[in-house]
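Would you kindly consider the sequence and fold I have copied below?
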Amino acid sequence: MNPGEGKTMRRNKIINAAEKLFFSKGYERSTMDDIAREAHFSKRTVYAYFNSKEQLHFEVMIRGYRQLIAMLKKEGKKTNDRPADGRLEQMADTFYQFSTDFPDYFAAIFSYENGESDFQKGIPDQSREECYKLGEDIFGMLTGLLREGQEEGIFRNDLDPVKTAIVLWSCMVGVFHTSKVKANYFQNYHHTSSKDLFSGAFQMMIRSIQNEGGGSPE
């Protein structure tokens, strides 16, 4: 094993330990001491690779983003020939599937609270920059679909694609959260599953941005 491979293995072992603790104990309750013990390294070794617990959280989010992007690309290939609104619906379905298949990654990504320091100049952090780049890649997929829908005459041209994407993203996250934490309530009192709630909500979102007459043009 060359030195580079050994360094990569140690780095991944530390991320694995952090991920296990963040998902089992919670990010706030996990410490760098905990991570060092879980990884079977000294805290000094952990700090040689990562400068903070937050940087490790970015690394965990990076794993989640990569998984989500892989799913979006795989499912997107199946709907390449569909109009933009159909592809947007497929994208939403993939988000839902991701939240079901990888709930811990979903929570890590969508529960992260951005701090002011994340955007200050002069504080380089490769993990943070890569994490935000992956997030922007996904956001770019969403805005791209909205622009294509406008070109196809499906979505309203008076809407700003970026601002509309932010609203759709925010609404999706809100519905995701509600459908998860209130799943038993909605199922027992309204006979509505989390999947049905999300699908119905997203259909309302799509209709709100469609041209009059709605749907893809014939």
